[in-house]
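Researcher: Going back to the complex we discussed earlier. I've cleaned up the inputs and rechecked each line, so this should be the final set. Can you rerun the prediction on the complete assembly and write out the structure?
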Amino acid sequence: MAATLKDVARLAGFSVTTVSRALNGHSDVSEETRKKIMEAAQALNYVPNRVAQQLVMGKSSAIGLYSLDRETFQNQFITLMISGLMDEATAHDLNLMLFATQRLQTAEEVVMQCRQRGLGGAVISGLRIDEDLIGHLPQMDFPIVLVDVPVHGPRATYVSVDNVLGARKAVEHLVSLGHRNIGLINGHSGAWVSHQRRLGYEQGMRDSGLAIKESYIFEGDFSKESGRRGAQHLLTVNPELTALFVASDLMAVGALEQLQAMGRGVPEDISVVGFDDQDFALHVSPPLTTIRQDMYVFGRLAARELIGMINDPGYTPRHVDLPCTLVQRGSSGPVRSKEVLR
Amino acid sequence: MAATLKDVARLAGFSVTTVSRALNGHSDVSEETRKKIMEAAQALNYVPNRVAQQLVMGKSSAIGLYSLDRETFQNQFITLMISGLMDEATAHDLNLMLFATQRLQTAEEVVMQCRQRGLGGAVISGLRIDEDLIGHLPQMDFPIVLVDVPVHGPRATYVSVDNVLGARKAVEHLVSLGHRNIGLINGHSGAWVSHQRRLGYEQGMRDSGLAIKESYIFEGDFSKESGRRGAQHLLTVNPELTALFVASDLMAVGALEQLQAMGRGVPEDISVVGFDDQDFALHVSPPLTTIRQDMYVFGRLAARELIGMINDPGYTPRHVDLPCTLVQRGSSGPVRSKEVLR
DNA sequence: CCCCTCATCCGAAACGTTTCGGATTCATTC
DNA sequence: GAATGAATCCGAAACGTTTCGGATGAGGGG
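Model: Rerun complete. Updated structure for the full complex:
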């Protein structure tokens, strides 16, 4: 069906070799024949078969993304990241191939699956820090970029926002509004970001001269329901709380609903700050003050590091913590005056 | 790096041909040598190179998905569909390759891009009905499945939910709650689903013996802001309205906010029904009554039809309208008694 | 007139598979 | 004992590219 190099060669009256060299811009072909060959290729609607190219050149023509079956609540997270990955990959003439992180495979299996398909490298998202796959990845000599899980190696790196800074910003924001008694609803400990966000919370509290009480901290699991439980628990045990930093928007929405069900007004009685800036953060009432991470540039950066490793065997991948910003909306406000005066 | 057939052949002491046939389960190889060959393959950690396989067999090893840059508000829509596509593709030993529907290309370009990469077919989502690409697609002799745009051909079909039915269900639900004056905030006319949903709205009204007034219908563009404008406009012009059917959840949230800003209680003063059941529908207040489409099975069905065409040249693709269901939540309620009595 | 250089072209091998057609062996059948 | 047939195996071609190493011919310098 599709025209091949041989067809172009026949039509143009040259050898396959010359046609290939002409089309690839090599120097040892005269301008005149190059023109003829170009025309023939045009006429036949020729496009090189990437499969054949890949086989002979050994150069990969795509990168892989492992994602999309756990943490399904992070829909928007993934979508935007994919957009970033795709834009960056396309700019380097690479395609994007998707895989489900189903039952977690071993590092060897992942790498083999990629190699088999001619992929140059892969981005892996949605891993828990306790999966032993992670330890084996760096020494696989295959370009890998992890999402939100720290890893270091000559052919491996990771991308993440500066979660510590983000959490600190959240606390500082609340402190600047006069809050002193600030609780934390965290994600589960299987996620690396949970540790970071807790660290940031603690730093923020300490830097503001506030004590860190263990009873102010609740460990949820990123689900809306756990946010609800967290709010219920924290406010029952510590009625003096006037603000909550919640380590994900979804949990924050749960907390919001629970607080309102408990008759606590947000933000009059209690302020809430989330994390992520998922789209629904804007749609709940009150709209959620949150720490925004730009998943699009996140994706682009992941792809950039990956492609760096693929194209240059000597490339040493860097890790940069992406900035994240506070988006102030309706769920946070000044502490009630009586509280301040007290 | 990776072991090849030749390596296995050398280790096992047989020819490349025999090794290939042994590994592929052909009959003309004795059980004894098959076992030896298996062992050798195991020892070398051999996996067939799919690129080479693809080149020689001409069989595709992946399908394409065009999506993801327009209508970015449909995040969850796409994520779930991708999950469905991927599960179905994986079950048929196919991979999924992603493409951005950037500047809209011609049908020829799309097909060439796929052929060049050895894809067996493609799913295309996010097209407007007025793109002329659509008319050319059916005669391309390349398996294509469109999303939410009707198309028919020996190698082309489309998937969609039964939007007419969905809209009718929404109206019937509102009627069953006693509503008589029901407005419609529709999506833009570039989307096929908008026409269908309007059709369903009209059917539902007529079947309930209600008149269809042009002034009850507002054409938005699926954005939250347009939902807001729609609510503002419709209620200013028609103060007697007690219910709105809104053709997307995002617009419905806009409408919700606008209604509340106008001092109209939802659902006490006015009921709202959305469409899609995106995740945030559950998080807004009141939680949105909406028409749910199951995007996961949507994706699976799309893949199934596509793969049917790919694997069997004689396969005639079918179109089935997927069912959609009403999910009743807090944004719809019985019409106020004074209204009923009046 | 010969040798060298340069510009232009091409044959053939290679990438890692699958498969067609044939070759070999050995038992079976007439 | 030769022909038939089944059971095993293998060589070589093919898929569509790229590229190495050479081939050809023209022009220039000695």
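Model: Worth noting: Residues 75-91 of chain B form the longest helix (17 residues).
Researcher: Good, that matches what I expected from the previous run.
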